[in-house]
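Input (structure):
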C-alpha cells in the first residue's frame, strides 16, 4: 500500500523526469547562417560559436548525385546570411545538431526543400506527416528531383557507394 507521503514523492519524481525530458526536447538555437555545406547541412553562427546543423526528417541528394548541387544552391538562396531559429533535441554521430530550421519569414527550411522537390522525406527518421505529404505533392507536380523517374534516394545511393568501396 502506498502512503500519502510516498505518493507525493513519486509524483514529484515523475514531474521532474517529464520536465527534464521536455526541456531536452525543446532546445533552441538562434543565429545567422554563415555556411551551406550541402542541401541538408548548414553552419550557423550563434553567440560567436559555429554549429553545424543537419536538417531533421529530410534527406537531400548527395553532392555527386543528380540534383545535389541544385539542392545546395536552393538551400543557400533560402537561408544564407539570414537569421534562423533551430529547434532540436539531439546531435548525430558527427556531432551535428539535428533540427528544424525556421526562416525569418516563419517558414520551415526543412519543409521548403521538400516542397520544391529538392529533398526526400527521410522516412527512417521522419515523424512529421507534413513532410511526406509535401514530398507527394512535389512528386505529383514533377518538381526538382522528381523530374527524374529513376531518382535514387540518398540513403540508397550512400549504401551503394559504400558497397562499391568495400573490399571483396
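Output (sequence):
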Amino acid at each position: 500500500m502506498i502512503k500519502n507521503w510516498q505518493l507525493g514523492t513519486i509524483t514529484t519524481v515523475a514531474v521532474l523526469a517529464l520536465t527534464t525530458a521536455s526541456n531536452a526536447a525543446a532546445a533552441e538555437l538562434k543565429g545567422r547562417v554563415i555556411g551551406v555545406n550541402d542541401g541538408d547541412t548548414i553552419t550557423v553562427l550563434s553567440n560567436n560559436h559555429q554549429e553545424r546543423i543537419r536538417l531533421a526528417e529530410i534527406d537531400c541528394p548527395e553532392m555527386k548525385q543528380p540534383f545535389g548541387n541544385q539542392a545546395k544552391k536552393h538551400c543557400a538562396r533560402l537561408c544564407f546570411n539570414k537569421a534562423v531559429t533551430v529547434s532540436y533535441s539531439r546531435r548525430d554521430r558527427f556531432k551535428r545538431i539535428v533540427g528544424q530550421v525556421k526562416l525569418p519569414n516563419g517558414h520551415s527550411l526543412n519543409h521548403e526543400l521538400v516542397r520544391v522537390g529538392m529533398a526526400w522525406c527521410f522516412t527512417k527518421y521522419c515523424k512529421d506527416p507534413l513532410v511526406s505529404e509535401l514530398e507527394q505533392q512535389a512528386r505529383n507536380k514533377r518538381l526538382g528531383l522528381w523530374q527524374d523517374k529513376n531518382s535514387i534516394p540518398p540513403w540508397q545511393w550512400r549504401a551503394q557507394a559504400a558497397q562499391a568501396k568495400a573490399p571483396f
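Notes: The helical segments are 4-25, 68-79, 109-115, 129-141, 154-165. The chain is about 40% helix and 25% strand.
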